[in-house]
Sequence to fold (395 residues):
Amino acid sequence: MKGHSHSNRDAQLLRTAGKVVFALSMAYLAFLGSKAWHRPSQAVKPVVVDLDWIRSSHECPDDDGTAAHRVCLFQNLVVYQSQLVYLYQGPRPPEIPDILLNWHMDLHLDIVTMSASPRSRKFVVMKEAQVQHIKVSTLTWRQYHLNYYHGMGEAVIDIYNLACKYLQYCGTPNSSEMTPIYIEKPGDQMSWEQALPSAAQAMHCLFPGKAHWIGDSDIHDKVLLLETAVVGIGPYSRRWRGFPDQAAKFKEVYGTMDVHVADTYRTRLTQCFKLQYKQHNTEGPYDVTIVNRAYHKGRHIVNVKEVAEGITAMDHVKSTRVVYMEPLTFKQQIQVYADSQVLVMTHGAALINILFMPKVLLMLKVHERKEKTRRDYAFRRQLNEKPSIIPGYPS
Fold:
């Protein structure tokens, strides 16, 4: 009995000692973690993920039977060597739904299926790669994305639409978890940071995390494991309808974007860039802004001084200013639109900036005559220019 009592006491002491050692170990690890937190230069070790246990799956919340409208959510999809990879187990690969990515070019989602089996040489090789875990992501094809209008007015808002509508990431504090992934094929892939800083700034404002193009060299031999990814256009599209021969058909296929999404997109960007709005008198007198281009860029109003003087002389006009955007930063440019009550400008990509204007406004857009060889403009009676009035608030 005595020996048994001693053994019980010894066992209890060992359990107590074990608990103390565990507690001290955890405290020490927490201490090391806190020290590492204050050493930003220290490299973060990649997350260890065993791909043997990863299987892809999917569901399509928007599916009326057409590829043009289908939107699907994928779980555990993989990006590897410039391809989207669907991991499966079993004798036969799954059937991947047909999803349209680009209506104008008739481009569809391209996913490679891969057996997650030790008998698959490709899978065995991929398992050796470094794995980067991404919680939520959008997969989009950026059409004409290096053009200012198509970048700011289509590519960025396409990403926001998918993230907001299907993932509930509408510019909320957790939006840093959301990673945009661009899946257009190799071509002119100059980054937004290089070619279109405004689009890069807008994306960083909406989703502060790092975005990836599927063909980026720095991720080519890594595995991006996408916990949840959304892809597809859906029944509504904000994209350019195309030239007249395409526009009518496009309108038959797609409706206009959800007003809530467009409204939160505008609100989030104006908050990010801290735009200040003036209090305008809607009954007048009015403040008029003429946005003109530098002469060498074309679409230049050659007699802009004369036009400004003529507008200022009109009844109910308080002031008229002429603004050239070329020397201004992106934030300074969009602040010009935010300050404008009545806006006059020539047709061009920068018209997308009207989304930053006050909700009560008037905007005059001037088109060139088709027979003119150079895209310059003069407001003279004999040219018969007919400005069109369009709303400055997106619907």
